[in-house]
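Troubleshooting log. The previous run stalled partway through. Resubmitting the same two chains, unchanged.
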Amino acid sequence: MPPTATPITPTTTSPAPAPASAPGPAAGPNPAAAPNPAAGPNPAAGPDTVLHAIRTHTRSENPSAFLAMSRGTLAFTAPGLDGVIAYRQAGQYLVQLGGPFAAQGDYLPLLERFLDHARSRGLGVVGAQLQRADAEIYARQGFTVNQFGASWVVHLPGFTLQGGRFMRMRNKISRAFRNGLEVSEVPAQDHAEAIREIDANWLRSKGEAARPLEFLVGEIGGPGQAHRRLFVGTIGSRPVGYISYSPVYGERAGWMHDLSRRIPESSPGLMEAINSHVIEVLRAEGCPWLHFGFTPFTGLDQENELPGHSPAFQWLMHFLWDQGEALYPAQTQLAYKDKWAPQAPIPEYVAFQGDTASLAAFAHIFRACNAF
Amino acid sequence: MTDHTTPAPETVPEAAPESGPQAAPAPDSTESLQQQLVQSLMGIIGAPDDAETARAADTVLRALDARLAGRAAAA
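Second attempt completed without errors. Output:
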């Protein structure tokens, strides 16, 4: 079953936040910041607290909110404030996943406490995968906000693989099934060995220096696993690939095509075949939306930029789309997502403290993802 | 984001001039600043904790911001 849509939190008045114009690492620790000692990364903010926040506080409509449940991602909370900020530390930066998942009246106070917390430790803050609603708030608070890429989504009612657009994909899918592919939904804990084997083969195929990404990428296992769905493809009883789907909450509730891996020498059309099977399952369940998640450097459009954005960083995003394959294979990733005829891209943003973008902060988003 | 990458900073191409032959751009040209910006990013990836590298990158980014903003204003 698809996750339940969550209600919009009623509007309340929020106190004025501190400006975001005093960035962290270069500025050093600021003893005058006087952070609230009770606010911070909160081990007591367990998965239930995070899950409650991302299910309840969905005004930003972040399709990747469930990534906040990943192991290794921290939850920042503050006493008396309803919500969490999901983040990881990389070097001298705290890298946020999206904006605060917080009640409307607590959104800015929680962000303010988080900035205080970072400032008191001499750290900077950079926000990744902010949605438009987050981006507008951050820009008003003095951040420099630029488009980082886009997320992609398919509306399932009425979706069909019929028609000329999908002919090549239908052929690939047919070939995979003719090669003996069978797809089934399985409990991850019962298939740990198969997942390990697929992962090991997949990683080997990426070369000696390959590192599996984390943080802005899903995972299998941990406290979030009970809420995900795992579909495994087998050929002759050998597991050859899988796709993990994470729940998406809010107005576009549904599932996100998240972690996907396959044994490289297995059948062509494998992932397409698994996903086409899942689409039929989800459609039968009445699920309205299948998300394909965020791809950096894609869907870039001048119309999406906010006042005060950095034109140099905007140029860099276009450059990395065109020639940044070694940093992130955006074109390859988008080619897969585009096969499914997604709707118009949903822009996602990066927010930098201060009056322009920061390459160091940007690089640390990738560092937080274990890219280097 | 999809789940793999193998960053290889040395393999990321330099920004190419927008037009014309592949001659080296003038040191203060927009194309040169764009090349420097890409090189700065790769420098940070190679030395992410180096404050001087980060500061130098900020300088390049601000210069390119000013150049591109000036272009937009003139257009």
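Takeaways: The first strand of chain A starts at residue 40 and ends at 41. Chain A touches chain B through 52 residues (CB under 8 Å).
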